[in-house]
Specification:
This protein folds into two domains: 24-53; 56-297, Alpha/Beta hydrolase fold, catalytic domain (Rossmann fold). It has nine helices and ten strands. It is of the alpha/beta class and 298 residues long. It has helices at residues 24-53, 55-58, 123-131, 154-171, 187-197, 214-219, 228-231, 239-244, 279-293, and strands at 60-61, 77-83, 89-96, 104-112, 116-117, 134-140, 179-185, 204-209, 249-253, 269-273. The strands form two sheets. It has an eight-stranded mixed sheet, with helices on both faces. A two-stranded parallel sheet has the order 1-5. Helix content is 35%, strand content 19%.
């Protein structure tokens, strides 16, 4: 008797592979890498923001909307100069001339102000210089006073200083041998650079310098976690240029000891400590210096 044949069964469908099990260690590593990448990107962004905005640590410009009626009672001429590509003047300055026959009528002071405030803060100094019988030309850098609105920096302020020099020597046809740069605050660095660039400058006056500003940036709490030494470029160097500059220089310090940047300045130099406000000592120092190094050659 034949055996019954069994009917072939339906083929068994393939079973899906069990899902891969994600290793917890891999997850931890991926999360850690994401966090580190985010922190690194955030830190680099912070470094970029510091690089672009570092000027705010050392420069504090003030804008002004009106001109003074006089410089401590002294009449002056408002000057707009330094045209850009559009032929629009970018800088505003004050020309404060003395009467012919004044003691130093042949000498012009190119006043380079500090990076804090504006030229309006220098009115007493400008009046004192003029009262000695000196012509004075002072101006605001871009970003200051009524000069063009711009972000100030060592580079733009150096360019503005060159524009002021060009205005005096080319537009007003004043001989370089009759121009004495007077720098205060960060303007001391700009005045020193100008004297180093133009050998014809007869003398240099530096008053209470605020330069070599890396230490200022390092001490700022906003820059505590950043590589400031690598990123900072608004330095306004002074000590090193002074150590090699042979131009006669009057170095005015407003503290009980000489400014540290003056200690290694090369000769000829004349250092005066004005520990307390003294108009008489200030005036005597300027007269002695100008008579010895400038007026004698006029």
């Amino acid at each position: 008797m034949p055996r019954p044949t069994s009917k072939p069964g339906k083929p068994t469908p393939p079973q899906p592979a069990p899902p891969d099990v994600v290793s917890p260690i891999w997850l931890v590593k991926a999360i850690a890498l994401t966090i580190v990448t985010a922190l690194l990107c955030g830190y680099l962004t912070l470094c970029l923001l510091f690089y672009q905005g570092q000027w705010q640590l050392v420069l504090h410009p003030t804008r002004t909307s009106a001109n003074p009626t006089s410089i401590a009672g002294i009449p002056y001429e408002l000057i707009r100069f330094g045209p850009d590509e559009s032929a629009t003047p970018q800088l505003t300055g004050w020309w404060i001339p003395v009467a012919p026959g004044s003691r130093y009528a042949a000498i012009t002071i190119l006043f380079l102000p500090d990076g804090n405030g504006s030229l309006a803060n220098a009115l007493p100094t400008l009046a004192s210089l003029h009262n000695l019988g000196l012509n004075v030309f002072a101006f605001d850098y871009r970003g200051y006073g009524q000069s063009a609105l711009a972000r100030p920096s060592q580079q733009t302020m150096t360019q503005d200083t060159d524009s002021a020099w060009q205005y005096l020597t080319a537009t007003r046809a004043i001989s370089p041998q009759r121009i004495v740069p007077y720098g205060t605050g960060v303007g001391a660095s700009l005045a020193t650079r100008l004297a180093a660039t133009h050998d014809a400058i007869p003398a240099l006056i530096l008053d209470t310098p605020r330069a070599d500003l890396l230490d200022v940036a390092i001490r700022d709490p906003r820059a505590t976690l950043l590589p400031v030494r690598l990123l900072f470029h608004e330095r306004f160097p002074l000590a090193e240029p002074l150590s090699t500059l042979r131009t006669p220089k009057l170095l005015l310090s407003r503290t009980t000891s000489p400014d540290q940047t003056f200690l290694h300045a090369s000769d000829p130099r004349f250092t005066v400590e004005l520990a307390s406000p003294s108009e008489a000592l200030y005036t005597q120092s300027l007269i002695r210096f100008l008579d010895q190094y400038v007026a004698i050659n006029m």
